[in-house]
Amino acid sequence: MTRRRSRTILTTVAGLTTAGLLAGCSAGGSTGRPDEVDLTVSVWGEVARADLYQEVLDGFVETQDDVTATMEFADRGPYFERLTTNAASRNLPDVFWLTDTHFGRYAGAGALLDLTPYLGEQIDVDNIGEDWLPYGEYDGTVYALPSHFNGQAVLIDQVVFDERGIEYSAESWDDLADLAREMARTDEGYYGIIDPTVGITQRPFEAWVRQHDQELFDEEGQLGFDEDLLVDWWEYWAALRDEGVAPTPDVQIESDSQGFTNDLLVARKAAIRLSSATHLNQAGVLRDGGLALLGYPEIDGVAEDWRFYTALLVTAAANTPAPEVAAALLNTLVNDLESAEISKISMGTPTPTSVSEGIAPLLSEDDQEIIAYLNEERSNPTRPTPVLPETSEQFTASLTRFSQEVAYGRMSPAEAASALFSDADRYL
Amino acid sequence: MKRVLAHVAIIAVGIGMIYPLLWMVVSSVKPNDEIFSNPGLPSAWTLDNYVVGWDAVGFPFLLFLGNSALVAVISVVGNLFSCTLAAYAFARLEFRFKKLLFAAMLATLMLPFQVILVPQYILFNNLGMVDTFLPLLIPKFLAVDTFFTFLMVQFIRGLPRTLDDAAAIDGCGPFTVFTRILLPLMRPALVVTAAFTFIWTWNDFLSPLLYLNSRESYTVPLALNAFLDSEGASQWGPMFAMSCLSLLPVFLIFLFAQRHLVNGIATSGLK
User: Cα–Cα 20 to 30 A to B2, which of A174, A292, B20, B26?
Assistant: First the structure.
């Protein structure tokens, strides 16, 4: 064989291989249920949570013919890194969880299964409730179900409050600051309150915004609050930091970086923490109880319907080869009491009240308190939360970044707020 | 006196550098609640973290050590095989577009892994290789770790061409010149390639995260990540215990290959 001929053959083979790969890339998902279905289900968290959900999956596959299911998991950061790559190659797990901040991006990219045909069929929506379905809607289409939810709360070290004979009675933000000042022992390195601004959550600020009758994002997906409101928020916390009532950013960021293990409330180095309700369990277990779960401070007479809930959304991928089976699994993960008895409140409080109340007797006192607190919170009037824009997590990252700039004194609150708004014009 | 002060300073810096490692080892024998609250020695020494950690991810940790060793050893073989051949071609052979291809290779050296992440994943996904070790191993046999190719090109360029010419006069073809003359002289560069490939593969987290989904195929970094829950209670003690165990192979590699590592870097012109 001549060298030229062998080169021609090699070129042809390479071309055909490339064409085959491209064809493979563009192949769409099949329709109808295959004879054998192997579902991949993905969740964030550590191995204990994955084991619980593997048990739930084992129960589910027993009710199905020729279905197997495998659980994937990773810690939250790597979980979303992997999900992004999976989405780019249209190889998402069949069923997986999203946070409300990530939901818009995946739904907007057409990566999620339209659940509308399965509502009322494989998926029982009565238990979830009409108020809760919109959490999984994007552009009027249901792509996800709110399997669990969480609400805002205040956690306090009840032991220290009792020791000092002080009763928690912070109804307003000013009350909260005064109480934190009273609890702080700056000479002993004991803080009155944990600084929520430098961490990775925007929820305390969202509460502040909604209490002022504004929103983080408006219906058009732009920032829905005034710059001054952000300046006030940062000034509120800067004052507490300057007095030593809240930790310095170094201390706070180091504490935040290790999850709850080194949380200042867990380490008995702070008295008050703005939290999610389920943190009562996570912090309580690590420090053998002694915590109390209380309502958020409020701004008198401005917006009583400010409460909002963070929904954990379970969804199916548009690329799943067995959408009916995936929909049935979604129903099990949201509505099935027996499954919830296994997973309990590992992911949060189950959205259907019948499920959360059904599992309550199996739970620890702290967990029962969380469910009772959240169900009571739900009875308050609540105005709808606008759907988060696709790039909402960039706002969260930006808020954290500029909060840290303020905390370290590198920018004034006014400068940082102005920079955050300019930055938001770029990505929103 | 000056010398004593210099030694004291060096020892102090050395202790500072080794402190994180010591902290991890001490933390692995502490009760979980003391790890962050007590920076000193534990109030009670315990091996519980090793016992709990060994089976905590559903399989004995030996399986993950074995998976990592398998991937690392085959990667070493792949890189030694492919990078030496590619380097020999660039350093000694003449072929069309050699300069252009060399520049392309250098360009890929500067390309961040994140850029090729998605296309590479799509390729392996379409080939049905996700959740196997193949996506981690196949690239190693295609000389994609261009750093090592470049390192060996530099090394071969430092070897006298007269050796090749003498072999050619004795009747050696290009391949025999490579295997009989150059390869034996490349030992320091080969050791560097082997050691760094092993260590980087052993510690790699992102590629296994993307390609290995089943727990039984986890490598050590994935298994260690399974102890972590950034939103809740992480099992720090067992994680540190298993981290200590997973450091042993890397430590041994450094111990035995240290002299060659320095030699290989020093003689390849990559100072």
Answer: B20
B150 token code pair: 């470049």
Nearest-angstrom CA–CA distance, B91 and B89: 6
pLDDT top residue among B35 and A63 = A63
Residue A97 in 3-state DSSP?
strand
Per-residue pLDDT at B37 exceeds 80:
no
CATH number for the domain harbouring residue A80:
3.40.190.10
Is B125 in Cβ contact with A91 (below 8 Å)?
Answer: yes
User: From the list A47, A70, A91, which residue is nearest B57 (CB)?
Assistant: A47
- How many Å apart are CA A126 and CA A115, to the nearest integer? 15
Do A232 and A337 belong to one domain?
no
Residues A47, B58: C-beta atoms closer than 8 Å: yes
Q: Which fold has domain B59-267?
A: MetI-like fold (1.10.3720)
pLDDT tens-digit readout, B113-143: 888 889 999 999 999 999 999 999 999 999 9
Nearest partner of A42 among A91, A5, A86, A93, judged by Cα: A93
DSSP A149-199: EEEEEEEEEHHHHHHTT------SHHHHHHHHHHH-BGGGTBEEE---SSS
**A240 and A195 in contact (C-beta within 8 Å)?**
yes
* Integer Cα distance of B59 and B52 in angstroms: 12
Separation in Å, CA of A369 to nearest CA in chain B: 18
In a domain, A9, yes or no: no
What backbone torsions phi and psi does residue A199 show, to the nearest 5 degrees? -80, -170
What does the buried/exposed string (b/e) look like for A273-306 if buried means 16 or more CB atoms within 10 Å of the residue's CB?
bbbbbbbbbbbbbbbeebbbbbbbbbbeeeeeeb
Dist CA A57 CA A328 (whole Å): 12
Co-location of A315 and A331 in the same domain: yes
Q: Which of residues 204-243 of B touch A (CB under 8 A)?
A: 205-206, 209-210, 213-214, 222, 225-236
DSSP 3-state of B110: coil
Taking the CA of residue B42 and the nearest CA in chain A, the distance in Å comes to: 17
- Structural domain including A329 reads 37-149+310-378
How far is CA A54 from its chain centroid? Answer: 21
Which of B106, B108, B268, B115 lies closest to B193, judged by CA?
Answer: B268
Q: Which of B123, B209, B229 faces A259 most closely, judged by CB atoms?
A: B229
CA-nearest of A112, A173, A99 to A143 is A112
Q: With beta carbons under 8 A apart, name residues in chain B contacting A259.
A: 228-234
A contact set with B (CB within 8 A):
21, 24-25, 40, 44-47, 49-51, 70, 72-78, 81-82, 85-86, 88-89, 91, 258-262, 267, 282, 285-286
A50–B232 C-beta distance less than 8 A: no
Q: How far apart are CA B24 and CA B35, in angstroms?
A: 9
Which range (B28-42, B120-134, B166-180) has the least confidence? B28-42
In this model, does residue B261 exceed pLDDT 80? no
Domain boundary (A378, A401, A416) is at: A378
Three-state DSSP at A67 gives strand
Q: How many domains does chain A have?
A: 2
**Hey, where are the domains in chain B?**
1-46, 59-267
Which residue ranges in chain A fall short of pLDDT 70? 1-32
Q: Are residues A254 and A390 in the same domain?
A: yes
Q: For residue B21, give the 3-state DSSP assignment.
A: helix
Residues A97 and A231 in one domain: no
